[in-house]
Amino acid sequence: MKNALSLMLVTASLLLGGCQSAYYGAMEKVGYHKRDIMVDRVKDAKESQQEAQEQFSSALAEMQALLSHDGGDLEQAYNKARDEYESAQDAADEVSKRIDKVEDVAEALFEEWQTEIGEISKASLRRSSDTKLKATRSSYQKLLGSMRRAEAKMPPILTAMKDNMLYLKHNLNARAIGAIRGEFASLKTDISGLIKEMNKSIAESNKFIASLEGE
Question: Coiled coil located at which positions (predicted)?
């Protein structure tokens, strides 16, 4: 309990200070090393991708409901679709923030690891650690590439959703809905592709986490 409280206090104070190097140093003093932070941040990034998948799917479902609208309160249906689009935008922003945090701690971890290898006097241990560093870095680069590929698929989808929402905002009637109905199939395909790409990234995250936690 005492250690957990110390961890919370250190985290809060250093996040306010905004200095990552000081943050990592302070966290290490309470037994929370860069490797631990990296595992947690990869888990957070994975979780944000899972949440984004759900949110984009919800936005697609509400847009489908709007385009299929055949009576009742059209503005209410539009508002629900707009709210889901805005939530998808928030989810996308969170994914990007968490990937950035993974990248930040990875750079710090690998720099520290490389420095410490140079401090190992025994050649065989130094070679072994260097081999492990290269393997971990390679695995990480594969993970980061997968995360960034999934991330890159979100902005075009959000742009298309925004275009549709703005068009409907100014022309909320059956004719306007009919005008954008043809774009829905393309949007549906794009979101399906996004979800598949995120699933690949999530799988890479699980492999990377297992490789670090298994040591």
Answer: 35-112
In the three-class reduction of DSSP (H, G, I as helix; E, B as strand; rest coil), residue 62 is classed as: helix
The Cα 60–Cα 159 span in angstroms is 14
Kindly give, in sequence order, each residue whose CB lies less than 8 Å from that of residue 158, ignoring residues fewer than 6 positions away: 85, 88, 89, 92
Distance CA 191, CA 212 (A): 31
Q: For 18, phi and psi rounded to 5 degrees?
A: 75, 10
Sign for the CA dihedral angle at 22, 106, 38, 149 comes to positive
Give the count of beta carbons closer than 10 Å to the beta carbon of residue 174.
10
**Helix residue ranges, H only, the chain:** 2-17, 20-29, 34-67, 74-117, 123-170, 174-213
Residue type, 87: S
- For the record, the structure tokens of 149 come out as 């590929």
pLDDT in tens, 128-179: 999 999 999 999 999 999 999 999 999 999 999 999 999 988 888 888 888 8
